[in-house]
Design brief:
The structure holds two protein chains of two kinds. Helices cover about 35% and strands about 0% of the residues of chain A. Chain A contains 13 helices and two strands, in the order αααααααααβαβααα. In chain A, strands 1-2 form a two-stranded antiparallel sheet. Chain A is globular, with a radius of gyration of 23 Å. The N and C termini of chain A lie far apart (about 90 Å). About 5% of the residues of chain B have low confidence. Chain B has four helices and 20 strands. Chain B starts with a helix and ends with a strand. Chain B is mainly beta. The radius of gyration of chain B is 21 Å and the shape is globular. Chain B has a 16-stranded antiparallel β-barrel with strand order 3-4-5-8-9-10-11-12-13-14-15-16-17-18-19-20. Chain B has a two-stranded antiparallel ribbon with strand order 1-2. In chain B, strands 6-7 form a two-stranded antiparallel sheet. Classes of the chains: A mainly alpha, B mainly beta. Chains A and B meet through α1, α9 and α12 of A and α3 and β8 of B.
Chain lengths: ~350, ~425
């Protein structure tokens, strides 16, 4: 009997100490999400978007936003003057493109689907694998990416400095000349921070208009937040936890395997894990997933209903078969495609800046 | 003889009316803004997601460390009760009455990354909801659960629960069953001179682990005396092994098979020579007993078939009926649950329970057939109201069995 007691003592002693031992070395590169504005604490309710978070070193001004908007639609940022941010993030396609993956200069195919720029300002980390920490960091990426805009940052700056109209505008916004790359990415990021969709039927419903959702959409919302387990990842005002999950999505496109988050953290847990995308306005931008492998919202829901993709040993524990009936699938789709589609005129129907309106 | 008969009968009737405490913890739903079906097929039965949430120490897997702790959320307290009408019918006649079927007070939450707790207190309630004056409470006051969980000590492979908790071998939780009146008979079956009841929550330490390949284990060391102070220095041990085949956790998807064993000791000399200030005594003449069983949970769409077979064996020294042999019994149940309507707003279920004691004790053999329907009135966040109807036909004994019927219709609410 003494032995039993000793065992008990041991267990009690070991437990807290190994707990501490486990916590101290943070092998993960993942920044603590608790330190990031919108995701300050834990799973949150789905709700309306709070004011957009703005970094202290890049305050919003209307002139800066205007400048960023011009840059966003300007193909001169690309190597051969054919591609702008809009090419892959078009306001008329839910701020994404026709997909399944993006096409850059010289018709080159990328390996991943273009995520929406709308509401990207709320992402704690940018890109499917979270390799950029902010919109500013992110904006450098596509300009230099050989299959996207194929340019160099030096060349972008040189080009812009050769356009007197831009030199004048940058000077008014940043008070210095010549134009620097830091100013370029700040202006683009400032524009992206106004591409926010706040006026969906869901938002009106949350705001008190009980008639904003149809009965089917309401049921869809309840399933999204219940039997479908969707809010366990698509939570909070932007319907995203900002974290990375492996759903076992079928890999299509040029790659056989996409390592996803693993390439950033080298943590085996992150193998083929991708950032949870927002589902706001998802109805406007088929196809879906990091590689555009699911054609419609119905097929996305069917995919979840089966318990995600097959043959992936790293499947996220939150993914389980759902037992959704046809009616329930329909309700979920109605919730996403109708209730979450916004009609902010300045965002959903934003008129691209025509080449003739760009600085010369 | 007749008096004894009536006494037994009324005890049986009472046991029928004593609903099980049932856990469903809207405090969690409130914390996340979820509806109940996030974690429950329909409350209180856990779905796969809820099971994994529980296994992960009441933290959403992958969100450890960013979970709000108990001080950052509305008070993590929940209440559950139900009230309705019961009609009881036996050879003697029929009774009926409105009733309040117990009350659970629950608190649960995360204290710190990978440290969480669960407390369930059931206050004493006298039949059916009187002042505290009666001698025969319909619900005894009890600290049903009070435990702290240290999770992910070695990733998913090693988690510890300390305190009073539902032991792992209760894979089909009687606390989270749809049935309110009819517990799993084999869980609550008592043997002649043994204070151990399988359905009880036990006090001790339990280690659990779950793995990507669907394997799970639970191993524990407990008093084996329910919530009472231990009556001997011998501790009980148990082991539960589960394999889930296919995706899911076997609760609402995936196919699950399990084996469990519980090995315990019961003193025959009571009280012992010492009684501690905390109530424990060192009862002597400890004799062993065990429970062994297997279980299966099969899922297809929203149909769930659950089966349990169990055998119990008490040492002959504990067999006050026929002291020359071990007391051996078997039993089990088969349950089919079906979830229908949007978001599982309707549950229908059938349940068959049986217990086969040894022939010399077959007056306590049980066969029970139950039907249940539950309709959930809403899809609300963190509370629900359920219209619940439950019927059981039961036969006790084999020759000339006592036959009785219990029909209950009630409103069950939880927030």
């Amino acid at each position: 009997m003494k032995r039993v007691k000793r065992f008990l003592m041991l267990v009690v002693l070991i437990a807290p100490s190994s707990l501490i031992a486990q916590e101290s070395p943070k092998q993960q590169v993942l920044p603590d999400i608790t330190s990031i504005n919108v995701h300050s604490l834990g799973p949150q309710r789905i709700s309306s978007l709070p004011p957009v978070p703005v970094p202290v070193d890049n305050p919003q001004t209307s002139m800066k936003v205007q400048l960023g908007k011009q840059l966003y639609f300007d193909t001169r940022l690309s190597k051969d003057n054919t591609v702008s941010c809009q090419t892959c993030h078009s306001p008329s396609m839910g701020w994404s493109d026709a997909g399944p993956t993006s096409t850059g200069i010289n018709g080159q195919k990328g390996t991943r689907r273009a995520p929406p720029v709308s509401n990207a300002a709320y992402n704690p980390l940018q890109f499917w694998d979270g390799r950029a920490a902010s919109l500013e960091d992110q904006a450098e990426g596509p300009m230099q990416n050989p299959v996207e805009m194929g340019n160099t940052l030096d060349n972008v700056v040189k080009t812009l400095n050769s356009v007197p109209g831009y030199v004048e505008e940058f000077k008014q916004v940043f008070w210095t000349t010549p134009i620097t790359i830091d100013q370029v990415i700040k202006a683009i990021a400032a524009f992206e921070r106004i591409v926010i969709t706040t006026d969906s039927p869901f938002d009106r419903y949350i705001g008190g208009d009980r008639k904003a959702l149809s009965p089917l959409e309401k049921q869809g919302m309840a399933i999204f937040n219940g039997k479908g387990h969707c809010t366990s990842c698509h939570w909070g005002p932007n319907f995203s936890d900002g974290r990375f999950h492996n759903l076992g999505a079928v890999q299509t496109g040029p790659l056989n395997v996409d390592n996803g988050r693993y390439d950033v953290t080298h943590n085996p847990k992150d193998m083929s894990a991708f950032k949870t995308p927002t589902v706001r306005d998802a109805g406007l931008r088929p196809p879906y997933m990091h590689d555009g492998s699911e054609k419609t919202l119905e097929s996305v829901v069917d995919f979840y209903n089966k318990g995600g993709g097959d043959n992936d040993s790293n499947l996220d524990p939150l993914i389980v078969p759902l037992g959704l009936s046809k009616e329930e699938v329909k309700a979920l789709v109605a919730f996403m495609s109708v209730a979450l589609t916004s009609s902010n005129p300045e965002v959903a129907h934003l008129k691209p800046v025509h080449t003739s309106e760009l600085p010369k | 003889m007749k008096k004894l008969y009536i006494l037994i009968l009324s005890l049986i009737a009472l046991s029928f009316l004593m609903p099980d405490t049932i856990y469903a913890i809207p405090a969690f739903a409130r914390k996340y803004g979820f509806t109940c079906t996030m974690c429950h097929t329909a409350y209180p039965k856990l779905n796969d997601f809820g099971q994994r949430f529980r296994d992960n120490g009441y933290q959403i897997p992958g969100q450890e460390g960013s979970e709000k702790n108990v001080l950052e959320i509305p008070p993590p307290i929940s209440l559950r009760t139900s009230t309705g009408l019961s009609i009881y019918d036996s050879k003697q006649g029929t009774t009926s009455g409105f009733n309040v079927y117990g009350l659970d007070l629950l608190a649960a939450g995360v204290l710190h990354k990978n440290i969480s707790f669960l407390i369930v207190y059931t206050p004493r309630i006298d039949v059916p909801a009187a002042n505290y004056t009666g001698t025969n409470p319909s619900q005894p006051g009890s600290m049903e659960s009070a435990n702290i969980v240290f999770s992910n000590i070695i990733q998913d492979a090693f988690n510890l629960r300390i305190g009073r908790f539902e032991p792992a071998p209760q894979v089909f939780s009687s606390h989270r069953s749809f049935y309110i009146m009819e517990p799993y008979e084999v869980y609550s079956f008592m043997t002649p001179a043994n204070s151990f009841v399988f359905a009880d929550n036990q006090i001790g330490v339990e280690a659990t682990g779950h793995f990507k390949n669907g394997f799970k284990y639970g191993v524990g060391i407990v008093n084996g005396n329910g919530g009472n102070p231990d009556n001997s220095n011998y501790k009980d041990v148990y082991l539960n092994l589960i394999q889930v085949i296919g995706k899911g956790d076997g609760q609402s998807a995936g196919q699950r098979v399990g084996l469990f064993g519980y090995y315990g000791w019961q003193p025959t000399v009571l009280p012992g020579t010492v009684v501690a200030p905390t109530g424990e005594t060192n009862g002597g003449g400890n004799k062993p007993f065990y429970r062994l069983g297997g279980d299966v949970s099969l899922n297809w769409s929203t149909l769930n078939l659950e089966m349990l077979l169990m055998q119990g064996n008490d040492d002959k020294a504990l067999n006050t009926l026929v002291p020359s042999t071990d007391y051996r019994y078997s039993g089990g149940f088969v349950e089919v649950d079906w979830a229908a309507l949007m978001n599982n707003r309707l549950i229908a279920s059938v349940l068959y329970n049986w217990v086969s004691p040894p022939s010399y004790d077959n007056g306590r053999a049980i066969k029970a057939y139950s039907l249940l329907v539950r309709h959930y009135l809403g899809d609300w966040t963190a509370f629900n109201v359920v219209l619940h109807g439950e019927y059981t036909y039961r036969e006790i004994g084999t020759t000339n069995p006592i036959k009785d019927n219990l029909f209950t219709i009630l409103v069950d609410f939880d927030f």
